[in-house]
Amino acid sequence: MARPKIALIGGGQIGGVLAQLAALRELGDVVLFDIVEGMPQGKCLDIAEAAPVDGFDVSLKGANDYKDIAGANVVIVTAGLPRKPGMSRDDLIEVNSKIMRSVAEGIRDNAPDAFVIVISNPLDAMVTLCQKVTGFPAERVIGQAGVLDSARFQAFIAWELGVSVKDVNAMTLGGHGDDMVPLVRYASVNGIPVMELLEQKYGSAAKAKEVMEAMVKRTRGAGGEVVALLKTGSAFYSPASSAIAMAESILKDQKRVLPTCALLNGEFGVKGYYVGVPCVLGANGVEKILEFKLDAEEQAMMDKSVAAVKGLVDSLNL
Ligand code: TXD
């Protein structure tokens, strides 16, 4: 039986790590596409020459022609500019929407049956544009932001409480911007509320709240924290890991519940916009959006985040 095929559009920082992770996990054969000649071929050759050491049996091919993505089961898009210090994700919209249009046409014309995971920023707007231009059903075009934003929130909680990251459960909803919604109420360590553990640690509810607020703030600004340190670009290891988890859930029909930027049809009070929400990801892409009740404060934060997404998406005049 033929191996699945994974096409990566954009062979930069995230694209390179995506190629390596897809190979290490033997998710399928990899095609790494970029407009820069030689670079995706060089990265693929480099990764492929590690196969005897790492022991993976997949093929890797660098490409500058969209024809090479034909037959891809999953396409992950990172094409576009990353942020530099001082920039917001939204500052990228003009240049990256031009790139996204051409990328989406390439996918539409060459891999019409693929599932598409968009990573390029500003994320919510770029997914919307990609879905519009490809014309693919919305359950086949999704965005990666929430897996990473949630992972950052989980990491901060684990470090604070001195427990394994594996036992922390926490999620963010909303857009991939500074108004994202880290859900404090449901954050837990194997089901034990994080707030209760913080109260035990600090001996007061007020101090626990203060510590949690700092973690929420750090989660919202976590992308910028990395940009400020790197100076030349934005995070790339963690976004790649996050998108690979989504691709794996689809390719292996795992039905994992992952925070996904998905097109909403009334869920959480949002209709016709792409926003981050928990989704069941399986062989059919977004198989289900898991809706649940938000309290008044959470809903207000969600509304604010969605308003920011709407402002940006509407500016594209799609
Ligand atoms: O969680 C998330 N969603 C994100 C998103 C977290 C971090 C960064 N995120 C965004 O991903 C970031 O703001 C950028 O918009 C993308 C890609 O970030 P990366 O760090 O990989 O950027 P690079 O290294 O500049 O790579 C982008 C590549 C580069 O090799 C260009 O030559 C290529 O995109 N590029 C194109 N490829 C194909 N087609 C076109 N038109 C094109 N234009 C540029």
UniProtKB/TrEMBL annotation:
Location of the active site: 176 (proton acceptor)
Record-given protein name: Malate dehydrogenase
Sites where the protein binds NAD(+): 10-15, 34, 96, 119-121
Gene that this polypeptide is encoded by: mdh
Binding site for substrate: 83, 89, 121, 152
Reactions catalysed: (S)-malate + NAD(+) = oxaloacetate + NADH + H(+)
Gene3D superfamilies the UniProt entry points to: Lactate dehydrogenase/glycoside hydrolase, family 4, C-terminal, NAD(P)-binding Rossmann-like Domain
Protein family according to the UniProt entry: Belongs to the LDH/MDH superfamily. MDH type 3 family.
Residue stretches making up the Lactate/malate dehydrogenase N-terminal domain: 5-143
Annotated function: Catalyzes the reversible oxidation of malate to oxaloacetate.
InterPro entries: L-lactate/malate_DH, Lactate/malate_DH_C, Lactate/malate_DH_N, Lactate_DH/Glyco_Ohase_4_C, Malate_DH_type3, NAD(P)-bd_dom_sf
E.C. number(s) listed in UniProt: 1.1.1.37
Source species, domain of life: Bacteria
Keywords: NAD, Oxidoreductase, Tricarboxylic acid cycle
Domain Lactate/malate dehydrogenase C-terminal: 148-310
